[in-house]
Amino acid sequence: ATPVGLLTGTGRGAQLGILIKGPQVLEDTRTVDTILLDKTGTVTSGKLSVARTVLLPGAGSEDEDGLLRLAGSLENAGEHPIARAIAAAAGQGPGLAPVSGFLSSPGGGVRGVVEGRSIVAGRPGWLEENGIPLDSAAADTLRREQETGATAVVVALDGTPAGIISLQDTIKDGSRQAVARLRELGLRPVLLTGDNAVVAAAVAREVGIAPEDVLADVRPEGKVDAVRRFQEQGATVAMAGDGVNDAAALAQADLGIAMGSGTDAAMAAADLTVMGSSLGQVATAIELSRRTLRTIK
Ligand code: ADP
Ligand code: MG
């Protein structure tokens, strides 16, 4: 369904860029006591930039720029913030090549054929599940990159790890204050991410989420399970996210909140969309609809 500006009744919802799907949504905001926050694109800007490319033995004769160009050509077909960042960085060099047989695995990575070479780029664990493990030297390199707070993507050429692309993200302005406001509203904020634990812990620390409330390395199916687990423990759960990989969890949550900057899949699955995509608006949406509900009752 297309979101309708129900809160336009007060004029305030529309003014604040908050779109709500139906009246029952207001009921749900009243009782939520836990809010799961997707990291990339929700708490952080999701506007990643490539910090550096490190070569692994599988690179063969490719240098850093060559590997980045191949990866960028592949990722150019993707829509994940990681894909956009890698394609943008590669596009600054020589032009990108066409990709065939492109396949995207949400929460994992992408694969395809560029210039006759099979390329896979994604989360290290996902490559391993697909028969492309890192040897111990490569795993050491990976850990070093992650310890800088980077989201590290492994790139394999013709089935062999060829390099690691490190990306840096920034926390959105106002995320820290928004987490504090959510707490004041009586909600327990939990960080939920498919990214690695080192990066997740650093982001949690910066925005004021407790270390025990960080769930990292979570697959898209795992995000739904996390929502369900909190619900089984008696919580009424809100979930805020932006990605294709968040859609199922947004649908499972008692209150699904999508970022307006995010994917159509997230917005379609959510009860509520914040057009400005700030976490502050998420707090405002909960505040405002609780207030509106009081007025209606
Ligand atoms: P988040 O929960 O933080 O939004 P995702 O679940 O979307 O993260 O992605 C989890 C991990 O999967 C990323 O950190 C990355 O390692 C990998 N990944 C996802 N999409 C891509 C892609 N297009 N290219 C490379 N790696 C990807
Ligand atoms: Mg996201």
CATH homologous superfamily label of the largest domain: HAD superfamily/HAD-like
Return the CATH architecture of the largest domain. Answer: 3-Layer(aba) Sandwich
**CATH topology term of the largest domain:** Rossmann fold
Q: Main beta sheet, described?
A: 7 strands, mixed
Q: Taking strands numbered 1, 2, ... along the chain, how are they ordered across the largest sheet? A: 1-13-12-11-2-9-10
Number of helices: 13
**Structural class by secondary-structure content:** alpha/beta
Q: What percent of the residues sit in helical stretches (DSSP H or I)?
A: 40-55%
Quantity of strands, as a count:
13
One letter per element, helices H and strands E, the order comes to HEHEHEHHEEEHHEEHEHEHEHEHEH
Ligands in the model, by name, code or SMILES, are:
adenosine-5'-diphosphate, magnesium ion
Number of domains: 2
Give short descriptive properties of this protein:
297 residues, alpha/beta, Rossmann fold, Calcium-transporting ATPase, cytoplasmic domain N, 2 domains, seven-stranded mixed sheet, six-stranded antiparallel sheet, 41% helix, 24% strand, disordered N terminus, binds adenosine-5'-diphosphate, binds magnesium ion
Walkthrough of the structure:
It is found in: Cell membrane. Belongs to the cation transport ATPase (P-type) (TC 3.A.3) family. Type IB subfamily. There is one protein chain. The protein is an alpha/beta fold and 297 residues long. It folds into 2 domains: 6-45 and 171-296, HAD superfamily/HAD-like (Rossmann fold, 3-Layer(aba) Sandwich); 49-168, 3-Layer(aba) Sandwich (Calcium-transporting ATPase, cytoplasmic domain N). Helix content is 41%, strand content 24%. It is built from 13 helices and 13 strands. The strands form 2 sheets. A 7-stranded mixed sheet has the order 1-13-12-11-2-9-10, with helices on both faces. A hairpin with a 2-residue loop joins strand 5 (109-114) and strand 6. Helix 4 (64-75) crosses helix 5 (81-91). The radius of gyration is 20 Å and the shape is elongated. Magnesium ion is lined by residues 38, 40-42, 241-243, 246.
